[in-house]
Amino acid sequence: MILHPRAVTYDQWLAIYRGATPRLDPASAEAVEASAAAVARIVARGAPVYGINTGFGKLASVRIDDADLATLQRNIVLSHCAGVGEPMPVPIARLMIALKLASLAQGASGVRPATVAMLEAMLERDLIPVIPAQGSCGASGDLAPLAHMAAAMIGVGEIVCRGEILPASLALAGAGLSPLELGPKEGLALLNGTQFSCAYALAGLFEAERLYRSALVTGIVSTEAAKGSDAPFDPRIHELRGHRGQMDTADALRALMAGSAIRASHRDDDGRVQDPYCLRCQPQVMGAVLDLLRQAATTLITEAGGVSDNPLIFPGEDGDEALSGGNFHAEPVAFAADMIAMALCEIGSLSERRVAMLVDPALSGLPAFLTPRPGLNSGFMIPQVTAAALVSENKQRAYPASVDSIPTSANQEDHVSMAAHGSRRLVAMAANVDAILGIELLAGAQGCDFHAPLASSEAVEKVRSLLRARVPTLADDRYMAPDIAAATGLILRGALADIGGLPGLAP
């Protein structure tokens, strides 16, 4: 896959997250070379320029001798390798490297072609640095995690190579690479940026899209189980309100239910005048989720295509400039991550409410707790409790990270975004929603089984067949954890999300 800096699409970033190996567009070489040449001229000029011949952060007033410029860049990498906690998952770390590659290749960071080539080679040869995931406040760049990435490039730290953790120097040598020797500005360019926060936020976004689409399917399975109406999905209702996400969601829900014999069986004799909100308001709630995720996608794809280094290098015939700014401040990513967290909460919350409705005979009209012999059997009593627990856990995790700030670097960096934390929580929140939707899939399919021999729509019956190939109908109580794991696995693998015709985030 060819990576065209500043023109990488949503689908291309998704492909990299899923394992595709990007190759840089050769046309970017000219801008990289021009930027590196500009740094060389700035160094020769001798004027103090932040990060090139000065200290960093609060130490920016300290001038560094020319003989120490290479040591300065190595020192910033080593001193900033202060991360703690579990390492980044490899797919997200790969995505972070690709984001850094696309940023540096735009020729505004002053790095040499060899530095860009090293990042590209690491992706190509599956050399992924071991990067502790905690330690960034999301401003002045994701310094600690990106420092661990840069350290691996100079042969320090550890690298994951095809599942094996090796000392970085050995992993590079085994792949035929020599450790990088950093030139002026290069250590700072590698460390400064939002790529850690952005990679995690994109991963959360990709998982949230899959869960949104999966929840449309589980929602219709539950609607059929409860003999709910498709009237709330009538396009006339949604056109009057005008929200694009709501209209797209209603269209998808209506299509998923089309041709259902279960729906036809009670079309002229609905027992309820109106369904509960968890069924009736799916277009409104899930449509708002879709609009929110689309907005987050717009923000994150813009961020992924931008340059968040500092200072930025602008070569020019009338003189080269190094301009200090604040593109490293990850506030856009923090806001997007908070939006995704809210969306994940609501996907799970609405799903759990449908499970709670199904197990309550007064609301669903089905046997209590979806078991043919309630009392002797508890059926789906405790899976609903598990879903409720996961919903509340996600609520606790969803407190907006972007409203927090804490001064760092002796008050030089006095307002930070907390984008790293806000983005990092999303993967765990998505895993909770996977399990919630898995439980709903089990409960909805169990409810539909009570309507045999009536069948649902073609799409729903396909999903039920996938599930029943792994999990039989629950007749009497049994050990439930494997059932939940199997259903959750279908959600996680995208078996429901990949059903045709469901709306998504790509433009």
Describe the structure.
The protein has 507 residues and is mostly helical. Helix content is 54%, strand content 6%. The chain folds into two domains: 2-193, Fumarase C, Chain B, domain 1; 201-492, Fumarase/aspartase (Central domain) (Fumarase C, Chain A, domain 2). It has helices spanning 10-17, 29-45, 69-80, 90-104, 113-124, 143-153, 168-174, 186-191, 195-225, 235-241, 244-257, 261-265, 277-280, 282-304, 331-359, 361-364, 381-397, 419-449, 458-468, 481-492, and strands at 2-3, 23-24, 84-87, 127-129, 132-134, 158-161, 164-167, 312-314, 321-323. A three-stranded antiparallel β-sheet has the order 4-6-7. It has a two-stranded parallel ribbon with strand order 1-2. A two-stranded antiparallel sheet has the order 3-5. α15 (331-359) runs antiparallel to α17. The chain is elongated and about 85 Å long.
Low-pLDDT runs of 5+ residues are none
Shape: elongated
* Rg result: 26 Å
Question: What oligomeric state do these chains adopt?
Answer: single chain
Question: Which superfamily, in CATH terms, is the homologous superfamily of the largest domain?
Answer: Fumarase/aspartase (Central domain)
Taking the alpha carbons of the first and last residues, their distance comes to 19 Å
Strand order of the largest sheet: 4-6-7
CATH architectural type of the largest domain? Up-down Bundle
Tell me roughly what share of residues is in helical segments: 40-55%
CATH fold naming of the largest domain: Fumarase C, Chain A, domain 2
Helices and strands, in order, run as EHEHHEHHEEHEEHHHHHHHHEEHHHHHH
The total of helices stands at 20
Question: Tell me, what is the CATH class of the largest domain?
Answer: Mainly Alpha
Class based on secondary structure composition and strand pairing: mainly alpha
Average pLDDT rating: 95
